[in-house]
Each structure stands twice: as C-alpha cells, then as structure tokens.
Amino acid sequence: MMTVRAPSIISGSSMDRDLAEKLEQLAILQAELTDRELFQESLRAELAAFEGRYLREVGVLYAELDEWNAKIAELTAEAVGTEQVYAALRPVHGGCPARSGA
Question: pTM, whole model, 2 decimals?
Fold first, then answer.
C-alpha cells in the first residue's frame, strides 16, 4: 500500500491555515446552498398556489367559453337548417314570404 505524504516545504501550521480556510469556504457555500434551497421551495409553493388560482379562475372562463361556443354552433346549425328549408320551399311556393320581404 502506497502512502502519500505532504510535501516537506509546507509546514504544519500552513496546512492548518489552508484547511481552516477551506472549511470556512465550505461553511459559507453550505449556508448559501441552504438559502437557495429555501428560496426554491418558496418559489415552488408560490407556483403551486398560482396554478390552483389559475385553474379555478381560468377554468371557469373556459367552461363559459365552451357554453358560448355550443350556443353559437346550435344557432348556426339552426340557421343553416332554416336556409335549407327556405331553399326547398322556393320552387314549391315561389319563395318564403318572410324571407322575400313580403
């Protein structure tokens, strides 16, 4: 088994200072990571609240829009059907009085 030894030019106190600096940097980075993770969770909670509010408010509007589209489709179908009936009556009765302005 091979053992790695520290270079002899670095004194024990120099290695201790380097280690202390690295530990201090590590502590700072860990604190920053914790802050960012808390911020991320806060954003996730806000997003979830927004999604719920969006679905409640916009979902209602989409349902209303669907109702209006259904009414438009129904009225369009009735109008097309009425036009077809008037077209069929024209040759038999000479046109429909209500449609010819009479």
Answer: 0.49
